[in-house]
Design a protein that fits this description.
The protein is α/β, with parallel strands linked by helices and 481 residues long. The protein has three domains: 114 residues, Alpha-helical ferredoxin (Fumarate Reductase Iron-sulfur Protein, Chain B, domain 2, Orthogonal Bundle), CATH 1.10.1060; 170 residues, FAD/NAD(P)-binding domain (3-Layer(bba) Sandwich), CATH 3.50.50.60; 151 residues, FAD/NAD(P)-binding domain, CATH 3.50.50.60. The chain is 36% helix and 16% strand. It contains 19 helices and 16 strands. It has a five-stranded parallel β-sheet, sandwiched between helices. The chain has a five-stranded parallel β-sheet with strand order 6-14-7-8-9. Strand 7, helix 15 and strand 8 form a beta-alpha-beta unit. The longest helix has 29 residues. This is Glutamate synthase (NADPH/NADH) small chain. Keywords: 4Fe-4S, Iron, Iron-sulfur, Metal-binding, Oxidoreductase. InterPro entries: DPD_II, FAD/NAD-bd_sf, FAD/NAD-binding_dom, GltD-like, Helical_ferredxn.
Length: 481
């Protein structure tokens, strides 16, 4: 036992990488915590109990080999730990940064149940792959022999990029089409730098470009080409657009100047971080500086908006959410970070209307809420608490109520593309093929707004399915010839 580097959770306390002081980090978009130094990472990895049924792996959508790479890390075998981590995930250092580990691997850690505090899995995962990049262990994509078939991937978010990488590894010619001028989707333009610094994403994209994957950036399907035209150019197509249509709050004053969707606000901020010209930011419309800001919503996007507004120099930042803290969907760690940085949460509150002057918002009229009986999901449903109205001053209101699918059949001139009543693309549960032969779909456009790690999992699954279908197609064409 003395020589065993594991099972140290009784004598070693849980310790995350130190966060920078709130007053310091609230003025920049750098990530809030540094990565571990090697001894600290090895110590924390050594807390793993190496349990027979690793609930951390079971509850990871990618089923990462977490106990195995924790043991390798504890033994100082970092390159092997990286190779094992990389075997199941195309973006381990990104998942280590932005996965809600408190709801997934760490939240299901056996030693967490025993009262010793979970192993800091996400921070170790980030450390392993950051070390691999620094040491030059991250190798180019191993491209297989050319197959003479090509694939179109529509959407350069995590699902699309994962599929592109894996299919390129099989030797397919891969073209990625994306409406933005940089690849990465929400990783690039939706998630702020204090959670995911952009060079971390860009180096992944550059690795794919070096593998020969062709990126068509600034390409809008439906305008630059129809779906049918892409089908005619390629042997198979993947739809991995994500969901970008902002959900609306149906109250008066919704169209007032200063009432903006969350993604517009976050995209403008991230573009400024890249040094882009952003007219709506430069005019002040999407800049929180000097303003009283109210964010409506309780998910991770709402937390991103709250913390971005603080960094832009808002005079005050409040977040309104219709349930209480215990019932919010966002990460509790993110709430704690936001409170440390100066945000105020107004729990059990919902907007009744946006009131303004000369067409510009000046206040939010809201009602107090209370939690009633559980709804269909099992969460207690919010209901209006009579007599609890209040008015809060606001120069900028950011709506962060989630995202729905766009109307792809109409946008793309593809009425035969099957979609659900929510607009998500319908697929065969086994093959992930849509109603159109050779057209597949994966990620949020199938499952609805979800986690990055699920998009990576879907990309991995659909790549395997597309590979099988393309091989069968090649065999059939060879027989027919």
């Amino acid at each position: 036992m003395a020589d065993n580097p594991m099972l140290k959770f009784v004598v070693r306390e849980q310790h995350y990488p130190a966060k920078r002081e709130a007053e310091q980090r609230a003025h920049d978009f750098r990530e809030i915590a540094e990565r571990y130094a090697p001894p600290a990472a090895e110590d924390q990895a050594g807390r793993c109990s190496q349990c027979g049924v690793p609930y951390c792996s079971v509850h990871c959508p990618l089923h990462n080999h977490i106990p195995d790479w924790l043991r390798l890390t504890a033994e100082g075998r970092l390159r092997e730990a990286y190779e094992l981590s990389n075997a199941t995930s195309t973006m381990p250092e990104i998942c280590g940064r932005i996965c809600p580990q408190d709801r997934l691997c760490e939240g299901n850690c056996v030693i967490e149940f025993s009262g010793h505090g979970a192993v800091t899995i996400g921070s170790v995962e980030k450390f392993i792959t950051d070390t691999a990049w620094a040491e030059g262990w991250v190798e180019p994509v191993a491209v297989g022999p050319a197959r003479g078939q090509s694939v179109a991937v529509i959407g350069a978010g995590p699902a699309g990029l994962t599929t592109a990488e894996l299919l390129r590894g099989h030797g397919y010619e891969v073209h990625v089409y994306d409406r933005h001028d940089r690849a990465g989707g929400l990783l690039t333009y939706g998630i702020p730098g204090f959670k995911l610094e952009k060079p971390v994403v860009m180096r992944r994209v550059e690795r794919l470009k070096q593998a020969g994957i062709v990126f068509h950036e600034g390409f809008s399907v439906g305008e630059d080409a129809t779906l049918e035209e892409l089908r005619s150019r390629h042997d198979a197509v993947l739809i991995a657009t994500g969901v970008y249509k902002a959900r609306q709050v149906e109250v008066s004053g919704n169209d007032a100047s200063g009432v903006v969707p969350a993604l517009d606000f976050l995209t403008a901020s991230n573009r400024k971080g890249f040094g882009d010209a952003v007219p709506d930011f430069d005019s002040g419309a999407l800049d929180a500086a000097g303003k009283d800001v109210i964010v409506i919503g309780g998910g991770d996007t709402a937390m991103d908006c709250v913390r971005t507004a603080i960094r832009q120099g808002a005079r005050s930042v409040k977040c309104l959410y219709r349930r209480d803290r215990a019932n919010m969907p966002g990460s509790q760690r993110e709430v704690a970070n936001a409170e440390e940085e100066g945000a105020e949460f107004v729990w059990l509150s919902a907007p009744l209307g946006f009131e303004g002057q000369d067409g510009a918002v000046r206040s939010v009229r809201a009602s107090r809420m209370r939690l009633g009986a559980p709804d269909a999901s099992g969460r207690r449903a919010p209901e209006v608490d009579p007599g609890g109205d209040m008015t809060l001053g606001a120069d900028l209101v950011i709506k962060a109520l989630g995202f729905d699918a766009e109307d792809l059949p109409a946008l793309w001139g593809a009425p035969e593309l099957g979609v659900s009543r929510w607009g998500t693309v319908l697929v065969d549960g086994k093959t992930l093929m849509t109603s159109l032969d050779g057209v597949f779909a994966a990620g949020d456009i199938v499952r609805g707004a979800s986690l990055v790690v699920w998009a990576i999992r879907d990309g991995r699954d659909v790549a395997a399915s597309m590979h099988q279908w393309l091989k069968a197609k090649a065999r059939a064409e060879k027989v027919a010839a």
